[in-house]
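User: Structure tokens for this complex, please. No commentary.
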Amino acid sequence: MTTQELLTRVYDQIGLGGSTFWPAAEVVANGLSPAMRLLIGWKPSLLIQRALVTLAVDQAFIDLRTAAPRQIRMQRVCLGDVRTEDPVLSQGREGDLRQTSLAALRGHREWFQVRRAVPSHWYTHGLDVLGIYPRVLSSTLLTLVYSADPTPLSASDLSREPEISEQYHPVIADVATCLLQAKEGAGEVEHAMQRLQNIMQVEPLKALQKTLRAQGYREQAMTARGQAVSA
Amino acid sequence: MTTIASLLGRCQQYLQDETAQAWSSAQVGRQLQEEIQRLARQELFGVVTWVRGVAGTATYDLGDTNVGVAEVIYAGRSLRPVAELALTRLRRDWEKREGIPTYWTQELQAPNVLRIVPQPLATGLNTAVSPANPTSGPVDDNLVVFRWRMPQGVEADLQLNTNVLEDILVWRCVAALCGDPGEWQDSAKSATFKTLADLALEGLMGS
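Assistant:
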């Protein structure tokens, strides 16, 4: 679906007066684009990108703001160039680095001094820093595989299509409608949220389903505890 | 580029206050600034800084944008995070001690100050290095600090790597302003936008 088609679907759902109260630019900036980003958060596999990085000798960190500017969540760090079907090895090696954390590395006090031919682990420090352990003795090629922020849509280019799979385009418009109607405040906002919850429950959004289930369990546990206390 | 000014318009649209009659632009701008600080306090913006170790100096100023410290490395070795009370139990004169630093503490310091214990005996090389790539040489007798920063400045680029953070800032700002008691209070709308921001943050952080 193009941006124009998504706009039409949003206006159809909002009904009479939609384009008066929500100009196209607002629908795109406050509805369609944030809806895409919410969907990626709920289902990170919807937009996976790969970036090639050359790790210099002794380099311990990669600044993700420059190496992978639209990265939301790092999924894999692989040796060599695995962007295509025919991987290019780095120093004759291939394979994934294992994920670790700063806390785990701290267990070995001298971790920062370790140097080897190839790195074995990766970790993140916040959203912007990717750490590689151990530091390498020679230049190494790495491929970063990550969930990415979709390019925002624009009201000045209505022929553009969202970057995420076509099957999810109607969901973008549905979520966008809820986001836009939320601005109307008490009376309308409850309907918008109810619709959003329905979408969240019906769609196969793996990460989100997990969260909802966990919330359900938490609520059940709280209720059970409350009943136990009152009994 | 993300600036406070670029987020203002989105907030006003969600607030249905494009003419800034209910909430002045300055008020929305201030709220956005507060939300940035709140997001920073949640330790999302990591940065690695190389700090020159100085003989006999225990405290180091990490700058106004510092929110907290995650890890400290001295001369290539991880220092252990410790509470000052624990140091006092160990040895009462710990503040005077000199030697190879083993611990770091921030507990009773200002957020921008890092204290290492004991005070180092040597001064490190003052070779300029790329913050993202401290090399082996200057690491000797120097500190590599994994810290949390705060994006700053009304007009400056906030350097947000993802637009999801913009959504979270805007939605939290709308939630806060709608929730303020007064003529324009709308608790239902405030709760909704808070939920949206929480959902986006959960999507970003994965839990």
